[in-house]
Amino acid sequence: MIRNLRDIYFRSDQAKAYTLLSPALILVIIAMAAPMIVMIITSFNTQISMIEIDRTFTTGRYEDFFSKPIFSMLLFRSVKISFFVTLLTLITTYPLAYYIAFYVKKNKMLWIVLMTLPFWTSYLLRVFSWRVILGNKGVVNSALMGTGMIDEPLGFLLYNQGAVIITLSHAWAAFAILPLYVSLDKIDKSLLEASYDLGNSKFETFWRVTFPLSLPGVIGAILIIFIPTVGDYVTPQLVGGTDGRMLSNMIQSLFGRANNFPLGAASAIIMLTTVCIIAAVVTYITKKVSMRMS
Amino acid sequence: MYKKNNTLFIYCIFYFAFLYIPVLLLPIFSFNDSFHMVFPLKGFTFDWYVQMWNKSRLHQALFNSIKVGVIASVVSTFIAIFAAKAFTRYKVKFHSLSYGAILLPFIIPEIIIAVALIVIWTSLGLKLGLIPVTISHILFCTPFCMLILISRMEGFDKSLEEASMDLGENSFWTFWRVTFPLLLPGIIASLLLAFVISFDEFILAFFLSSSDQTLPIYMWSQLRFPKKFPHILALGAIIIIVTSLIVMTAYWLRNLGQGKKKDFTIGI
Amino acid sequence: MSSKNYIKIKNLSKSFEDVEVLKNINLEIEKGEFFSLLGPSGCGKTTLLRILAGFEYPSNGQVYFDEADVTSLPPNMRPSNMVFQNYAIFPHINVQRNIEFGLRKEGLSNEEMKHRVQDALKMVQLEGYEDRYSNQLSGGQRQRIALARALVKQPKVLLLDEPLGALDKKLREEMQIELRNLQKSLGITFIFVTHDQEEAMTMSDRIAVMDEGNILQVSPPKEIYHSPKNKFVSEFIGNINIFKTNILKASPEELLIDIEGLGKEKVQNKFDISQSDMIYSAVRPEEITITKEKNSSEHNLYKCIIKNISFYGESTYFYVQPINSEKIIMISNYNDEYSLKENDTCFISFEKKNIKIIKD
């Protein structure tokens, strides 16, 4: 009997493959799936005291979320900010990716390394740097005042949504350029030459050939930027002020000072759901668009 | 046609400046003799570096971060090696599902993971501290390590392992004599990069630790106090330099022995 | 105790997902044979070899090595060794350690290992290369190292997966001779996979021609060439002219047939063909003579028009069309004395015994 089992095991590629995968899958189940289930359960509970949670099932927290305007407002704002960050990052990094893919002949690797290196330094410190740059006594203002261009510091640079958007588009730039670069680099140059040959101008070639072919990279970049940004905490906390506050800041306080774990859990789930829906919609739309373009 | 484009080139230079200036400001001001990060620079000083040397809480936080980072990078890499082997050498049923599931922690917003973990941890009555932080870091780093190792394994030929078996070695010895040595640069790159990710990670640590701070948490706590934060600049400057060196080593290692085939997935 | 049929494959089939790659294979390979698996890409020959090596498990059937059932044995426990198509030389160790690689398990002393490695290198004429690394070797050298590495283990069976495919023509031809000589001197059974029929013909004691997961014929080269058992085999090996053929009358000794383009012929009924069977006739290009004038000949002469002449150095190929027929016949000739030109008329003839009857 055992010999037969051994035989079946050795014959089965699937068995071997899953043995190898088991640590990773166990990790995900214990450290992610189970916590998420508990999180979902908790979102249907009520916080009674500092440490006690009433486990009776109730949709009260979700009602709280949607009845108090501040929550929906923060959710909406988070999505809005992520949208602009994604747009800004895409627009500013695409030319760079394009340049490296098409115009750099030697040492492409070097460019990529230089491009991504800032990303590896502490995110916290980079955001803090932006606070310094944009502040009243900060680098921008003291430079402008020092050269006499303005008399008073520009107050609108910091502690608002704009500051959050700029800071985040900086933070994600390095990460976003990679999928863009990869898909641009993959494009067969002879397709472009064929396009010129057929009489298209540079712009037409870009719009009709290059850009559509780079769409997989664009989708990748969109998802890489958008999803984490919705849940970002550090940037709004450091440079957002009241105007730039996002949902994560609220969630964090629900687990800290405001001490309402169930509500925090519910908020997190709503955020996750929103992100999933948007990601699915984006993927769907871009697929449709790229099919029509090709 | 694709020889030169000066406008684009200038744009790139400006964009690079935009990318690097915030990063470079920190080292610059870390030598500045002033409590405020403003221009013009006041004077050159090593004070902040010296101050950093004397902060015991900083040392404790540094030590904690290193502890967590080492454990997280080793465990993540270990798990990732096996997962990478499964995905590259075998046809896994439910391939996309398993692959997606393992990558998930890396894709969804960190705060969601933080929330989920703090909820389950406290529900179980356990104390917050470095242990849940480490677990969360392992969860977070494993997908990343797996991607690095998958690309490394795809880079070398399956028939090398088959040849080893054909010549008489079983799975264990094949792994030890062929797979592991060839993977080694990738493994080291994975260890280094996972360490850096864990070392710099803030939000998971913030949610899940209590009195034991990691370095980012320590820095966060110091950011509000003008008199205290210049030494954070010194700390930050050092972190930037060390991290850059580690990352460049990892880049070099990753492409070691791969010849012309340079891999840019996740751009490392 | 050891039988002549060293390797036996019984009722073996293999499917990958829903695709049946090998269908009911039965094969017996003798000790000391140079045996080739020959067929086009996708016919299953490499899969069969890999099953012999232990890298794939059959969906059904058994494999026996010297009467022992090895079907479930992993590769490291089989008495066979393989030379891979891309050589699979370990890039992280030098030639010496590559060749020694399989000897670790045998617990030999360092002295002995060195000795064996030297012998192996001598066998493949690469003495002095011990310290080189894979990236310092040419394709042909790597191939020989792969060979040495497998042979140093003194296997009972050597499995070779299209080892000469990546070499240029001249080198390939040299290696073919070397491999054949090596095999003869060592007396090991070689199982050789290739899609190159010339290669298989040159080197093998017997060839198994495969197509779409089936073994179509197993015979020595000469027999395959002169007596192909079916259309596929006849077309795969060498050049051949296949004629649609109708059976007019069938008797146990004789067949009266009508050959496309050529007309009626009487031939021996060697394969028990009956009136209802579907057959083809086939003649090799070199079995046909071509002349400018009608000269006296005991064989039938057929008048044709030359459609095309191709000059290949040592031989010339004529493509002719019989009068009143659409059929194109290929003829190869070693002496182009006839100063024939395209659109000339000519006469072709061949011996009756060279007409091969092939059942469909």
> What's the tally of helices of chain C?
8
Radius of gyration of chain A: 25 Å
Mean pLDDT of chain C: 88
In the predicted model, the low-confidence regions of chain C spanning at least 5 consecutive residues are none
CATH architectural designation of the largest domain in chain C? 3-Layer(aba) Sandwich
Largest sheet of chain A: 2 strands, antiparallel
Report on the biggest sheet of chain C.
6 strands, mixed
Strand arrangement in the largest pleated sheet of chain C: 6-7-8-3-9-10
Structure explained in plain terms:
The complex is a heterotrimer of chains A (294), B (268) and C (360). With 294 residues, chain A is mostly helical. Chain A has 13 helices and two strands. Chain A starts with a helix and ends with a helix. Chain B is mainly α. In chain B, helix 3 (56-89) crosses helix 8, helix 7 runs antiparallel to helix 8 (171-200) and helix 8 runs antiparallel to helix 11 (230-254). Chain B is globular, with a radius of gyration of 22 Å. Chain C has two domains: 5-234, P-loop containing nucleotide triphosphate hydrolases (Rossmann fold, 3-Layer(aba) Sandwich); 239-359, OB fold (Dihydrolipoamide Acetyltransferase, E2P) (Beta Barrel). Helix content of chain C is 22%, strand content 35%. The B-C interface holds B 157, 159-160, 162-170, 173, 177-178, 181-182, 257 and C 53-55, 74-76, 80-82, 84-86, 88, 90-92, 101-102, 104-105, 149-150, 153.
How do you describe this structure in short?
Chain B has helices at residues 6-30, 47-54, 56-89, 95-107, 110-123, 130-155, 158-166, 171-200, 203-208, 215-222, 230-254.
What key phrases describe this protein's structure?
heterotrimer; A: 294 residues; mainly alpha; MetI-like fold; two-stranded antiparallel sheet; 13 helices; 2 strands; 1% strand; B: 268 residues; disordered C terminus
List the helices and strands and how they pair.
The complex is a heterotrimer of chains A (294), B (268) and C (360).
Chain A: H1 2-11, H2 13-43, E1 46-47, E2 53-54, H3 60-67, H4 69-102, H5 108-116, H6 123-134, H7 139-146, H8 161-186, H9 189-197, H10 202-230, H11 234-240, H12 247-255, H13 261-293
Antiparallel strand pairs in A: 1-2
Chain B: H1 6-30, H2 47-54, H3 56-89, H4 95-107, H5 110-123, H6 130-155, H7 158-166, H8 171-200, H9 203-208, H10 215-222, H11 230-254
Chain C: E1 5-16, E2 19-30, E3 34-38, H1 45-53, E4 60-65, E5 68-69, E6 80-83, H2 95-100, H3 110-123, H4 139-151, E7 157-161, H5 169-186, E8 189-194, H6 197-203, E9 206-211, E10 214-219, H7 221-226, H8 231-236, E11 241-250, E12 254-259, E13 263-268, E14 279-283, E15 288-291, E16 302-311, E17 316-322, E18 329-333, E19 345-350, E20 356-359
Parallel strand pairs in C: 3-8, 3-9, 6-7, 7-8
Antiparallel strand pairs in C: 1-2, 1-4, 4-5, 9-10, 11-12, 11-14, 12-13, 14-20, 15-19, 16-17, 16-19, 17-18
Helix pairs in contact in C: 3-4
